[in-house]
Recover the amino acids of this structure.
């Protein structure tokens, strides 16, 4: 459904990041740090991020205020603009347009027909 057209040279995406909306970063870190088994590589008031292997687990204290009610899995894609256009053409609903979140990372969020949020990410 995403970039799985082998003839076009697109790469099949992989789930790379899951972001959890949290209301209290301190309490969330008390649960996630022992669960994941590593200390955060980013520990700021706006985001806490853990890396385990190729997977990133993030805690977003603004998520609930941004209307995010549950975790969002972000799929790494080669061309976020092209993938977003393809998904919107299939009937997906735009939740968050492409946004530069720093460090060369672009993210966007859509909803499928059942209202499930799906994230896209591109590292530049």
């Amino acid at each position: 459904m995403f970039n799985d057209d082998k003839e076009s040279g697109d790469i099949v995406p992989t789930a790379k990041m899951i972001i959890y909306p949290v209301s209290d970063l301190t309490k969330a870190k008390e649960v996630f740090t022992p669960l994941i088994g590593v200390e955060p590589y980013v520990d700021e008031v706006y985001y806490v991020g853990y890396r385990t292997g190729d997977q990133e687990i993030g805690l977003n204290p603004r998520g609930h205020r941004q209307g995010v009610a549950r975790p969002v899995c972000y799929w790494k894609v080669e061309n976020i603009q092209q993938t977003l256009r393809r998904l919107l053409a299939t009937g997906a609903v735009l939740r968050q347009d492409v946004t530069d979140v720093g460090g060369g990372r672009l993210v966007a969020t859509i909803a499928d027909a059942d209202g499930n949020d799906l994230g896209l990410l591109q590292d530049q």
About this structure: The first strand starts at residue 14 and ends at 21. The two ends are 22 Å apart (CA to CA). Strands lie at 14-21, 42-44, 47-52, 55-60, 72-76, 93-102, 105-111, 117-123.
